[in-house]
Amino acid sequence: MHRLFWKFFTVVWLAMAGSIAILFAISTLFQSPFEEEVAGRELSLTLETAAQVLQSDGLEATARLVAAVRRTGRDIPVTVTTDGPAIDCAEQNEEALVRTAVRDGECYRLEIAGAAPSMMAKTWPRAVPWLAALLAAAAAAYWLARYFITPVEQLRYGLRSLARGELDVRIAHKIGAKRDEIASLAHDLDITAARLQELQMAQQQLFHDISHELRSPLSRLQAAIGVLQQNPVRLAVMIERMSREVERLDELVGEILTLARLSDRDTPRFERQTLDLVDLLREIVDDAGFEGQARGVTVQYEGVDTFVASVNGELIYRALENVIRNAITHTGPSTAVRVTSKVLDRKLIVTVEDDGEGVPETELEAIFKPFSQSSTVTTRSGFGLGLAITRRAAEWHGGGAKAENRPAGGLSVQITIPTCAAPRKLVAAN
User: DSSP alpha helices (H): ranges in 58-113?
Assistant: First the structure.
């Protein structure tokens, strides 16, 4: 990463330095002759004025003139020397920075004291601001390189940590208070890491739950085999019990496979059929009403008479059946399960309400996770996969499922199914 830093620094600084060098060259080429001409004229004018003052007013007036020029801030050292009788003044070169004046029969020589400034002396005052600009450009390039490369180093560290499986690493707090795209990328990386960590924990919990659910019927099968070995007379009873456990295992494996297909991003599309979902819903309500008679539970339907949609019939049947049967299981004895439907924006909205104890507010989302049941349930029924399959089946069709507690008590589950929509790609089961 240091190589990238120095590359970035070098490119930025060279760009700035090149611009400054070009500007300096232009300034030197086009401004220096003019400045030198102005300076030469200033010196000539000073000498010319001093010579005229000397010739007309004498040495004291000339001295006062030179002092007055110095007080203006221009240090022009004019020297006055005696150069012989007045007749010698005619031999002087009036073109150079030397002037002569005649006063009281004497020839006076006026000239600028000191040697002519060198090229370096002329250039250095103009070069100082440009050198300062070069140093400022270097500082700015260094700061820009640090500003951009340091977050990149943090991003690299975060990605390498993810590659090593360290999903608890977070880097956004190391970026600081930046509000640019790199900081947003760091926050997105943290969100990705948190999501991967959540999915990893969910996967581990899923493996644990599946193992637990499979172990229970297998343990009962082993117990039945042990009893059968000790007492062959109970063959018929044990075979019936073993058949029930095998059916339970088959049902569990089937639900797990269905959930896995619904949760897989690359799952092939389920076959669609054009069905009247209200007819399907009425059939489920009739079957559920017969099942609820043992506890005095009635199942009532009220809503639209027809709703034709392109869906996978098996998935929708299981989604609706899971919710209604779940409501029958958890409602109170001698109560009613109410199933209502309405059409809104070409979507069928099915609501199933019961008169049970409801679900704690903190668990309203958790009940849609695999192998999850409400903490209010005293006796475990089923595998905890029904509502998970319901939500994923609805989402696959472009709809959704949610739950909320009723103010009067009980749970309300709402399922939304569009008329026809492209299946939605789902995230992995959590």
Answer: 59-71
